[in-house]
Amino acid sequence: MTSRFLQTLLDDASRPFRNGSRFAYHYARGKLSSDCIFRELLKRGIFPAQGRFLDLGCGQGSLFAWLLAARKLYEQGNWPADWAPAPQPLALLGYELMQKDVDRASQAFGLDHPIVSIRQGDMCKVDFGQADVVTILDALHYVDHARQKDVLKRIRAALPPGGLFLTRVGDKGAGLPYHICNWVDHAVTFVRGHRLPTLYGRKLVEWVELLKSLGFVVETLPMNEGKPFANIMLICRVPAA
Ligand SMILES: C[S@@+](CC[C@H](N)C(=O)[O-])C[C@H]1O[C@@H](n2cnc3c(N)ncnc32)[C@H](O)[C@@H]1O
Description:
Number of strands: 7
Bound molecules: S-adenosylmethionine
Distance between the termini: 40 Å
């Protein structure tokens, strides 16, 4: 049942990208099928039942397409019995530095989507407003350490009690797997038509210390699924009032 369901979820989540280029479609399909984080987020019920989402460094909006498709299937009763209910997104706001990705997102979701808005912007500069969930998937390490701290402080301020900040980072203390992550990162960035970036990693303990110092309760979960990477998902919750 689950593998047929996953195929349907993947088909539905990738479909909006058919409105754009072949690249956008195949990139979304490849990313959503090969990266276990998308499936695990839903299966484990990490997101709240409903909420306003803010995704920083959102690329072409693959996470939002995934969430929309998941909620639709859940409402249709097509949902694995052992998965948590799919979250209901009330608003999906994304900021992405690269205009090319924002253009792909616009082609996928349209410019007048009722809840999705993906805008060009630098996470170090844009106003986050208020959100119930903030995500940064594989993008925080593009920002230098001082700016990372400022972004994290502003995320904490944008979240209410009980709010969630979810991110995935590489553990710089992990040795070779961390370097493999960075080589892959450089290759993917290059394929997506961007310049090779400088990457600003931290050891896992340093990430956790920093997030705790900002008032988050932090849970860590390796998120590599058999790949020789050092990726860790950080589930950071604002304590309830
Ligand atoms: C590895 S990609 C991940 C994209 C997306 N989060 C996903 O999971 O598909 C990292 C993204 O972060 C974006 N990015 C890097 N620095 C950024 C910044 N300062 N503000 C906003 N986006 C940024 C990059 O352009 C890139 O699209």
